[in-house]
Specification:
130 residues; 4 helices
Length: 130
C-alpha cells in the first residue's frame, strides 16, 4: 500500500524542513541615514501638526503621536533596520521638534502639553528600536 513506516507518535517534524526560505537581501544598516530620517520625518509630522492648527485653530489631543510615528518610521526606513541607539536619538529629535512646534503655536509651552511630548518620544523610540 504505502512505502515506508510512519513516524513514531509524538515526533514532530520541524517546519523549517518543509520550507526553503529565501534570505532577505537588504542594504546595510546606517545610523547616519537613520538620523537624517528622524529629522525629516519629525519635520514632516510637525508641519502637519502646525498646518492642522492653522486650518482648524484647534490642537488635536495627543497629536504628538503622529510626529513620533512619522519620525520613527522614516528613521527606520532610511536606516534600513532598527537599533536602540537610533531609537534614543529619534526620540530626542521628535521630542525637541514637538516642543518647538508647541512653543511656536502657543507662544510658550503650556504644561498640559507635556503628555503629548512624552508620548511622542516613547512612540518614536518604540518604532525605531524594535
Amino acid at each position: 500500500m504505502g512505502g515506508g513506516t510512519p513516524p513514531p507518535i509524538g515526533v514532530i517534524k520541524p517546519l523549517s524542513a518543509n520550507k526553503k526560505s529565501k534570505p532577505k537581501v537588504e542594504g546595510e544598516f546606517s545610523l547616519v541615514r537613520g538620523i537624517i530620517g528622524a529629522v525629516v520625518g519629525s519635520a514632516i509630522g510637525c508641519a502637519l501638526l502646525y498646518a492642522f492648527w492653522i486650518w482648524a485653530q484647534f490642537r488635536f489631543p495627543l497629536m504628538g503621536i503622529a510626529v513620533g510615528v512619522a519620525g520613527g518610521y522614516t528613521a527606520r526606513w532610511l536606516a534600513r533596520g532598527t537599533d536602540t541607539t537610533l531609537g534614543v536619538i529619534t526620540a530626542v529629535i521628535a521630542c525637541a521638534s514637538v516642543t518647538g512646534t508647541f512653543v511656536l503655536m502657543y507662544d510658550g509651552f503650556p504644561i498640559f502639553n507635556i503628555v503629548s511630548v512624552v508620548i511622542c518620544a516613547s512612540v518614536a523610540y518604540r518604532v525605531t528600536s524594535e
